[in-house]
């Protein structure tokens, strides 16, 4: 005797399709979150490299200046020692505190600046190279990679130590360089901020 086989009803098919849709949507959401987290991690790594490059350039210019200073050798403005001299002359004295890094400020603070690690050059805020970017904080160069175009959401503020009546302290004052970066990260999270402080001593006679 032939048995009749019962098929799925329309309601059962719709229910199964709904379950499948939920599974697919959930999997896509998880994959999207993973992609966003990976992008954030990549951008953070790249920005840290930019900050490290600024710190390294600061130390290089400082060391070049100290070597010339100790040897009593004159230097030109376009040399590393000369760039350090230009940089330090732009720092307010008496000291002015660096701005608090709560968000991406624009325009940049009046005495902020940026360094070009490729050519070891100093650019003040008046150079119009310190701008707000549309991606992560970075330096942008021309097609040859040798001419700095802009510093997107990346800048430095310098705070000189207070003058002291002590002779030794007044001859070895220091400068704290606050290197800041901030940018809108992918996703709906808060603005990403990174920073560090480099303290360098300036000899004075």
Largest beta-sheet details: 3 strands, mixed
* Separate helix tally: 3
Q: Structurally, how many domains make up the residues?
A: 1
Pairing-aware structural class of the strands and helices? alpha+beta
N- to C-terminal distance: 113 Å
Q: Which strand order spans the largest sheet, edge to edge or round the barrel?
A: 3-5-4
What is the count of β-strands?
8
Helical amount: 25-40%
Can you tell me the residue ranges where pLDDT is under 50 for at least 5 consecutive residues? none
Mind explaining what this structure looks like?
- The mean pLDDT is 84.
- A 3-stranded mixed sheet has the order 3-5-4.
- Helix 1 crosses helix 2.
- The longest helix is centred in the first third of the chain and has 62 residues, at 10-71.
- With 205 residues, the chain is of the alpha+beta class.
- It has one domain (46-201).
- It starts with 9 loop residues before the first helix and ends with a strand.
- Helices cover 38% and strands 22% of the residues.
